[in-house]
Specification:
Layout lengths: L4 H8 L1 H12 L15 E5 L3 H13 L4 E5 L5 E2 L4 H5 L9 E2 L2 H7 L2 E3 L5 E3 L4 E4 L2 E4 L2 E4 L3 E3 L9 H6 L8 H12 L5 E6 L9 H16 L4 E6 L8 H11 L4 E4 L6 E3 L4 E3 L4 E3 L2 E3 L4 E3 L18 E2 L4 E2 L5 E3 L6 H4 L6 H19 L8 E9 L5 E11 L4 E11 L5 H19 L1
Parallel strand pairs: 1-2, 1-9, 2-5, 9-21, 11-12, 11-17, 12-13
Antiparallel strand pairs: 3-4, 6-7, 7-8, 10-18, 14-15, 15-16, 19-20, 22-23, 23-24
Bound molecules: flavin-adenine dinucleotide (FAD).
Length: 430
């Protein structure tokens, strides 16, 4: 499919040409605006992997565009490397980065608040103090965990069985519970049905928990309850490492979705078994964050947001862009929900947003991904792909010959993973 310049200007500039110009011309007080603007403005919701990257890369390309980034957390905490914290290899401080450089180096207005309303018609978002208007909106709000799908996984259940699937208090809780568990204990880790955030993430976590148990808690075991019929990412490499290092520690069970938990007895149930866990890490199924529903960006019955992957414009509201985990891979192409991909999408989206605001045609997109996983305290594995636009499908497609798995597990890959994380945090937030 070839996207013509006319299509972009009618589709992409619709907001700027109609509602957007109206909001420039109306007096600010008439709209409840708390941050009157004097030129083009992009509002970004979410200061995670997609949002922070998009905010920075717009300012790198066009300083005349004002960027307001709204993020409810006061600091950035990275999910990549958070499994290393759970496994005792890093501390929370090692995966925490300030937002200050986005303000001082790039002039981004970083607002720490929660967006509670999006009005696509008036092109405004609401935070606690009032409304902020935009010419284009970029939404990268991550995921919502579907706790309700597991009986008993209410607030009390979550307190006993944390997911730790966004880096933060639950990551630290899991780390401390493992450290406090007596030797000979049972840890249970559940894997949700795909698609979910970070396909290899649960298996890396299993590896690092097993590594920790092997070194520190003799006689303990880790039961992995996988909803899926097999390990869904880097399967052979994980399995080879588990066979080599964790025999008698990891008990891996496929087609074992968790259906019920009982916090009072610390019991986790599948269709086949009731297991008492000393430490339980339940990772529920997932969908796009509730934030996307503020603007109806997720159609009824769908878990993710459909987008045009040339620009990451929502197919529902073209003046709003969606990037990161919240996007629907059936509209993007076969890309994983990873931080690297969110960063890549955000760069495409930033370039397209600058082009659309300036009345230009967005450039042909390309993207890349590498996912590193540790399989022990010292060795890592990786999977890589480079993506180009595919005219036939109108989506991104992996380039043949530019993708693949690491041929085995290596110390150098573990070192690369550490270097990659610090480099990409700097790319997003430095
Ligand atoms: C254990 C684990 C390990 C991982 N390892 C890797 C890895 O090695 N490599 C890799 O590439 N990826 C990895 N990932 C995946 C990666 O973390 C995600 O793909 C990435 O975070 C997606 O970025 P995002 O911008 O979509 O969402 P996020 O990074 O979650 O950012 C969303 C932000 O939006 C904010 N927000 C949401 N709604 C609102 C609102 N209404 N108002 C204000 N703020 C709001 C949230 O507070 C959050 O900060 C891992 C994930 C996990 C859980």
């Amino acid at each position: 499919m070839t996207i013509t310049r006319r299509k972009f200007l009618t589709n992409g500039m619709a907001g700027v040409g109609t509602v957007g110009l109206a909001s420039w011309s109306l007096p600010a007080f008439a709209q409840g605006e708390i941050m009157p603007k004097s030129g083009p403005r992009v509002v970004v919701i979410g200061g995670g992997w997609g949002g922070a990257t998009a905010a920075k890369y717009i300012r790198l390309q066009d300083r005349s565009i004002e960027v307001v980034m709204i993020e409810r957390e006061s600091v950035f905490r990275s999910c990549p490397i958070s499994n290393w914290v759970i496994g005792g290899l890093k501390e929370m401080g090692d995966i925490t980065v300030s937002y200050n450089a986005l303000k001082t180096n790039h002039g981004i207005k970083v607002v720490h608040d929660t967006v509670t309303e999006i009005d696509p018609g008036r092109q405004m978002v609401r935070i606690s103090d009032g409304m902020i208007s935009y010419d284009r909106l970029i939404v990268s709000p991550g995921i919502t965990l579907l706790n309700d799908e597991i009986d008993g996984l209410d607030a009390v259940g979550r307190a006993v069985f944390p997911a730790a699937w966004s880096a933060g208090a639950e990551t630290q809780q899991l780390r401390e519970e493992l450290a406090a568990m007596p030797a000979g204990g049972t840890v249970v880790l559940s894997v949700p049905f795909g698609p979910y955030r970070c396909p290899p993430g649960p298996y890396e976590r299993a590896s690092l928990i097993a590594d920790y148990l092997k070194k520190n808690k003799p006689g303990s075991k880790l039961i992995v309850l996988d909803s899926n019929e097999k390990i869904i990412s880097k399967g052979k490499l994980f399995k080879a490492a588990w066979d080599a290092y964790y025999e008698g520690i990891i008990d891996y069970r496929t087609n074992n979705a968790v259906i019920k938990v009982d916090a009072s007895t610390r019991t986790i149930s599948t269709d086949f078994d009731d297991i008492r866990a000393d430490v339980g890490n339940i990772i529920p199924n997932q969908r796009a964050s509730d934030t996307v529903d503020l603007a109806g960006l997720r159609p009824d019955g769908r878990r993710w947001c459909p987008v045009n992957p040339w620009t990451y414009q929502s197919t529902i509201h073209p003046e709003i862009h969606v990037v990161g985990d919240a996007t629907d891979a059936t509209t993007v192409g076969k890309v994983p929900k990873s931080g690297f991909i969110a960063n890549s999408m955000a760069k495409v989206c930033a370039a397209a947003t600058v082009a659309l605001i300036n009345g230009e045609e967005p450039a042909r997109p390309s993207m890349a991904n590498t996912c590193y996983s540790l399989v022990s305290g010292t060795e890592g594995i990786s999977v890589t792909a480079v993506y180009d636009w595919d005219d036939a499908s109108g989506k991104m497609a992996a380039i043949k010959g530019a993708k693949g798995l690491s041929p085995g597990r290596f110390e150098i890959v573990a070192a690369n993973a550490d270097d990659w994380a610090r480099a990409i945090w700097s790319d997003m937030l430095g």
